UniProtKB/TrEMBL annotation:
<feature type="transmembrane region" description="Helical">
    <location>
        <begin position="31"/>
        <end position="51"/>
    </location>
</feature>
<keyword id="KW-0472">Membrane</keyword>
<keyword id="KW-1133">Transmembrane helix</keyword>
<dbReference type="InterPro" id="IPR050638">
    <property type="entry name" value="AA-Vitamin_Transporters"/>
</dbReference>
<feature type="transmembrane region" description="Helical">
    <location>
        <begin position="63"/>
        <end position="84"/>
    </location>
</feature>
<feature type="domain" description="EamA">
    <location>
        <begin position="147"/>
        <end position="281"/>
    </location>
</feature>
<feature type="domain" description="EamA">
    <location>
        <begin position="2"/>
        <end position="135"/>
    </location>
</feature>
<feature type="transmembrane region" description="Helical">
    <location>
        <begin position="90"/>
        <end position="108"/>
    </location>
</feature>
<comment type="similarity">
    <text>Belongs to the EamA transporter family.</text>
</comment>
<dbReference type="Pfam" id="PF00892">
    <property type="entry name" value="EamA"/>
</dbReference>
<feature type="transmembrane region" description="Helical">
    <location>
        <begin position="120"/>
        <end position="139"/>
    </location>
</feature>
<protein>
    <submittedName>
        <fullName>DMT family transporter</fullName>
    </submittedName>
</protein>
<dbReference type="GO" id="GO:0005886">
    <property type="term" value="C:plasma membrane"/>
</dbReference>
<dbReference type="InterPro" id="IPR037185">
    <property type="entry name" value="EmrE-like"/>
</dbReference>
<feature type="transmembrane region" description="Helical">
    <location>
        <begin position="178"/>
        <end position="197"/>
    </location>
</feature>
<feature type="transmembrane region" description="Helical">
    <location>
        <begin position="265"/>
        <end position="286"/>
    </location>
</feature>
<feature type="transmembrane region" description="Helical">
    <location>
        <begin position="145"/>
        <end position="166"/>
    </location>
</feature>
Amino acid sequence: MKTYALLLTCVLFWGSNFVFGTILVQQFSPMALSAVRLSFTALFFIVVMLFTRRWPTLKMRDLLLFLPLGLIGTVVNQTAFFNGMQTTDATTAALVMSLAPITTAYLARWLLKEPLSKPMITGSVAALAGVFLVVGRGGGFSLSLSLGEIMIFIAMLSFAVSVILVRKLTERMEPLAITIHASWIGAVLQVPCALLLEPSIRLSHSVWMWLLAVGSALGSQVIATLIWNRQLKEIGAGKSAVFLNLQPFVAMLVGFILLGTKVTLGQLGGSLLIIGGVLIASEVLVKKEPPLPVPKRGSDLNA
C-alpha cells in the first residue's frame, strides 16, 4: 500500500502540472519554458552533488540508454507537451496522457517481457473509459484530433518510451543516479535547441510566474520523478503506469480550484471509473490471478 500511496503522490504533482502548464504558456514560449525548467532541475541536482560530493558514475553502456532517454523522454516530451498546452485545455491533455499506461504496459510486455494480468487489463479498460467520459463531459467524444492534441499525444508516447528505458536502467543503477543523469543530459540537449529555434527568447516575467515555473519543475521533475523511478523497481513499469489514469481527475480538480473550471456530473462519473480502474489494475480490489503467458516472439532491449 505504501508503494501505491507514493505513486498517487506522483500523480498529484503531474496532474497539477497540466493546469500550471496552461498558465505558464500564456507567459513563456514553449521552448523557453522547457529550457528554463530543465535548466533549474539540472542545476538543483548539480548543487546537491557538489555539496554531498557523490556524483554518480556513468558507464558507456549506460550512456547508450541515457542519450535516447534525454532526447525522447526530456526534449521531445517537454517540447511537445508545452506546445500542445498552448491550444489544449488541461483536462483534454490529461486524457491523451492517460493513454500512456496502456502504451507502456504493452511496450513492457513485448520489450521487457513483463506479464499482463487480467485485473491489469480490465482495470486499464475501465480507467480509459473513464477518461473519455471526463473529457466528453458525459456526452461522448470526437476521434478528430487538433494540432495541440497531436502534440500531447507525442508527449504521451515519448513518456511511455522513457518509462521502458528507465526500467532497463533500474536493473543496474539507483533511481537518484538515473534522475540526475537524465536531467543534465536533457538540459544539455534542450537549451541549444531552444536558442536555435527561438533566438529572441523573452525572459522578463513576473516573480510569481518564475516561482511557478521553477517550483512546478522541481515538484514534477525532481520529487515526483525520484519517487516514480524508485517504485518502478518495486512493481514494474506496466502496473505502476496505470496510475497515470488519475491525472485527468487531478487536472480537473486543480483546474476548478485555480481557474474556476466547471465540473460536470459526467466528469465526476468518469473520475470514479478512473479511480476504480486503477484500484482493479493494482489488484487492490481483486484476488491475485496468474499472469497471462508472455509471448515467445518479440524484441528485447538486451538484444
